Amino acid sequence: MTIPRFFLISLFSILTLFLLSGRGKPKTAITTLNTDNQSVAPSLKNTIEKLQQKGGLAKKFVQQKNYNDRYCFLIDMSLPSGAERFFIYDLKQDSILSSSPVAHGNCFEYWLEGRRYSNVVGSGCTSLGKYRIGIPYTGKWGYSYKLHGLDSTNNNAFERTVVLHGHSCVPERAVNDEICQSNGCPTVAPGFLLTLKKMINGSSKPLLLWIFD
Questions:
Q1: 8-212: which CATH topology?
Q2: CA 158, CA 24: separation in Å to the nearest integer?
């Protein structure tokens, strides 16, 4: 059943679903960020507060840089890879429009335990920082978006060919297990990429993607 777009649900309910039960929320739901509920677990409260903080900083950044000031994309790499940790964030309403799993880089190891980040060319690792989403193209991984790193921690992204793309190994909804790993690209499910595509291609201004831990 699809929940109407403007039906509000608590972030506690959504995060509980994808962190504990492994089931995601309908993609059309809007999630308000609220830490007032005393029943919210500390870990969930920390996630909410982190998103609120990043959302506030992102709002200032996009206004200064003349980016799209309605939406941005936030990725919290501190969450399990099977969780819905790629957030479409509504900067006007301080709310989450949708979320989905996203893969992190394996640093060219067979399987990377934990997290490791690098901006070095050839590292195969995820780079933390803010990105400007560039032009789309069709390449090795199908329909993809160039990424331009805006910080000292990710300014080699373009040279490293770190791009936003989809892959069938990434699930659309949260799962209990760890998901596949990439060679540094933020890789999402094909269906979720279509959701992002509508927003990116429909925007007259650049969109901000922010990867943090």
A1: L,D-transpeptidase catalytic domain-like (2.40.440)
A2: 32
